[in-house]
Amino acid sequence: MFFERIPGKEYPKEPESRMVIRFQDCDPLQHLNNAKYFDYYFNAREDQVAKLYEFNFGRLFRELGQSWVVYQHQIAYVRPAMVSEWVRITSRLIYFNQDTTVTEYYMTDDTRTQLKNVLWVTSKYIDVRQGERVIHPPTVMDYLETTCLPNVDFHNWNFNERIREIKGSLKAKG
C-alpha cells in the first residue's frame, strides 16, 4: 500500500522542514545556487510525505511502475539563502486532477519573517515503462484528496499575487 488513510486522523496540509544551507550548494557570493533550491525543496517534500503521510514513492514506482514527472516550474528568487543559514521549507499540494498535481513550496528564514523563495511545480503522472501519461489510481487519488490544501481556487491564483500573500502572512505572524 502506498498510502492508507486512517479514519479520524488529521493530516497536516502545510508541512514544514528546517534545514541548513550547505557550503557546497552555494556560489562564490555565499548565496544558495539557484538550481539547488530544487534539491532542497524536493528533498524536504520527500521527507515530509514519508513521515507525515507514510506515502512511499519507492513502493509506488516498484509496484506500479508509475510516478510523477515535472512538467513545469514557476520560481521566484525573493531574497538569497546564505551559506550556513537555517531556513524553513513549507510545501503544500494546491491542486490536483486525474493526472496532474501542483505543489507550492516556499522558503523563509528560520524565524519565518523573511520570504526567500517561492516555487510552483506542475507534475504529470506517468507510467514510466510506457513513458505515457496515465490517470492516478484510487489509492493515489485518496492520498491527494487527503493532503491537498482545501479551498484553493488554483485556476484563479496568480503567482506574483501569491508571493505578496505569503509575504503578508509572514509579517502578520512576526
TrEMBL record:
It comes from the Bacteria. This is Acyl-CoA thioesterase.
